[in-house]
Amino acid sequence: MAGSRIQAKGRRKRVLAAEDEFFNREISWLAFNERVLQEAEDEKMPLIERMRFLGIFSNNLDEFFRVRVAALQRMALLGKRTATTLGFGVDDTLSSIRKRVIELQERFNIAFSEVEQKLSEEGIALVSEDELDPDQLQFVQNYFDERVRSQLVPILISDVGVPELKDGAIYHAVVFAGDVAKRARFALLELPDYLDRFLVLPQKEGRHGILFLDDVVRVGLPRLFANFQAKSVSAYAIKVTRDAEIDMDDDLSKSLLEKMKKGIARRKQGDYVRFLYDATMPDDLRKFLIKKLRVVDEASIIAGGRYHNRKDLIDFPELGSKGLVHRKMRPLAHRHLRNRPSMFEQIAKRDILLHYPYHDFTQLTDFLREAAIDPKVTAIRVNLYRVAKNSHVINALMSAALNGKDVQVVIELQARFDERNNIKVTKALQEAGIQVIFGVAGLKTHSKLILVTRKEGRGERKYAHIGTGNFNEASARVFSDLSLLTADRRIAGEVDRLFQFFEHNYQRGVYRHLIVSPYSTRRRFSQMIDREISEAKAGRKGWMVLKCNTLTDAGMIRKLYEASQAGVNVTLIVRGACALRAGVKGLSENIHAYSIVGRFLEHARVIAFGAGGNPEFYISSADWMTRNLDRRIEVSVPIYSEQIQAEITAMLEFQLKDNVKRRTLDKKQRNRYVRRAEGDPIVEAHKGLYAFYERQIRDMKSR
Question: Is 355 a known active-site residue?
Fold first, then answer.
């Protein structure tokens, strides 16, 4: 098993096994999903919000199997001694995953039952087809006949076998009883994903009834198969998860767009990495399906409940009293942009930091809309990774092109699970006359950049955006991200240089202010850590704060261990997987690691250094993962504005004082909450930050 040499204070170098040096990345990710589940288990959380967190947990787990488990299973085919990049055995990791997933699934089922019961006490009942009274049954039958029946395509599977199943779709495996079973024992029925998953029944005596679409179909089964004259018809839910890796051929005669289309099509035939079935399913049906689907890995066969795709709980109907959901937090206008006619005028005066979802994302689309119709604007450059469906950003860019602006879009076709939408967006942009570039060969373009060129006076001025999150108005309502808008020539000039590089890959350029992966991120941040190490060794205070989504790169983790051993105070806020083991004596006792999972999804990356008493701050598109450091175009930007540095400091302080949603990531990642000491005020970072930005607006009004 892989290991490394670690210098402990006053001792010889010693070799550490992987499990002593790192925390298994996959198990750490499951620890993150446990934090999501903890939100669903939290009795102080509004009930419908708890139900939605159950949906988020389920959705996360689906993606985990599609991506991480699928990758591990591919590695396992290479042999039993295969190890992950951090040195953990693949077979052992898959075994640990299965055990942990079963534990979490049991907790999920308990939480779901508890929330379901408490909602019933509030007059909102999830009912099955067996619990419908005659009036409700008639309502459901009518709905089935009018909306559902025509969308169902039954497939008899006794003789023809089982067709290729869609990744993530819900199927009913149908069993016939009676004489018909001699001719056809089983059938398969796909539940259409474009129909609402929940049917709200007419309110009765002040109570709301909700039926899963699954049970609507069960009500209609006898009618759907009436010509079979079966003694009984039963249905059991199944679902498969497929390997989500896209395999693209090397045919140089094909465009990247063509290769992506074919790769997406091949994804539909990816190997099954999970077969989830209703645990009450008859043995003969279960064995038949497993055999026909050729699911050979026992660890991939998982017994579940009556309903699959619990991710749809994210869209659980909002019914009942206001106390069942969070109090709405309406996104705010930035204090310097509120009621201002021109964003360019304000950005020219000062750098502006937007913090979503506290600030309204439409301010960024307003920036693009203003650029689209401003006669002084000559060119717009944007790089896109993910955008919303029916994106306002895309509409603004198309408007700019129609108004004669020179518009260029760098789009990443290989944004996982958004490939299809990005191909659609590419076609729309090209039809609008916009130049579309597919980034840099061999590197994903994950940066979040905008550059607007505007005639001012006798010359021109460039306005830039550098952010931590995607240009996606849908996710910006939930994801906590940062957007820097600046006319600083040092920053904007280097953003311009990057767009030139996207167009002409041989012109890499030199960047003195921006930090760009894969060329300088690892080196520059390592040098900054070395500076803090020098400060600590000289007897001065060395410190740094890293806030990110994922920390799994072995090299950077070892650099943080080195800093800890030199006496540097390292604070981590890591939302997701963290392979660093914090608080280990002789290794990382000066590292304190936390995670916050709450109302918003923490997505912003922030790095701060003591820098010998003159703190430096950066925001970044990059997590500290090997792929972000070495195989992607990522951009980190220094924050030069003292006012914005103070805002970022306030944000970090709110998170590090949070005594409601903050967990400690100790060496075993047990997800223990940081509890409030007696007499201390309650601090919940997300609520506190919203109040902070509200105060900023009030202070501006009072001047």
Answer: no
The secondary element (H helix, E strand) that includes residue 242 is: strand 232-242
The candidate with the shortest Cα–Cα distance to 170, out of 151, 186, 191, is 191
In this structure, the answer to whether residues 492 and 561 fall within a common structural domain is no
Kindly name the residue from 446, 465, 603, 686 that is annotated as catalytic.
446
Give tens-digit pLDDT for 597-613. Answer: 999 999 999 999 999 99
The tokens of 175 are what? Answer: 């069993």
Buried b (16+ CB within 10 A) or exposed e, 300-318: bbbebbebbbbbbbbebee
CA 265 to chain centre: 23
Q: Which residues contact 518 (CB under 8 A, 6 or more apart)?
A: 443, 629, 630, 631, 632, 633, 634
Domain limit, last residue, from 483, 510, 537: 510
Q: How far apart are alpha carbons 193 and 191 in whole angstroms?
A: 6
Q: Which of 455, 462, 457, 486 is nearest to 374 (CA)?
A: 455
Name residue, tokens 């896109």: 384
Tens digits of residue pLDDT in 361-370? 999 999 999 9
Q: Before 638, cis peptide (omega within 30)?
A: no
- Whether 205 contacts 271, CB under 8 Å: no
Specify whether the CB–CB gap between 26 and 40 falls below 8 A. no
Secondary structure letter of residue 219 according to DSSP:
H
Q: Is residue 259 part of a domain?
A: no
Q: What is the pTM of this model?
A: 0.89
- According to DSSP, residue 565 is labeled H
pLDDT at 15: 66
Identify the CA nearest to 669 among candidates 33, 6, 5, 3. Answer: 33
Are 402 and 485 found together in one domain? yes
Domain that holds residue 675: 516-702
In whole angstroms, what is the distance from residue 170 CA to residue 186 CA? 16
Reply yes or no on whether the pLDDT at 418 is more than 70.
no
Terminal alpha carbon distance of the chain = 64
Tell me, what CATH number does 223's domain have?
3.30.1840.10
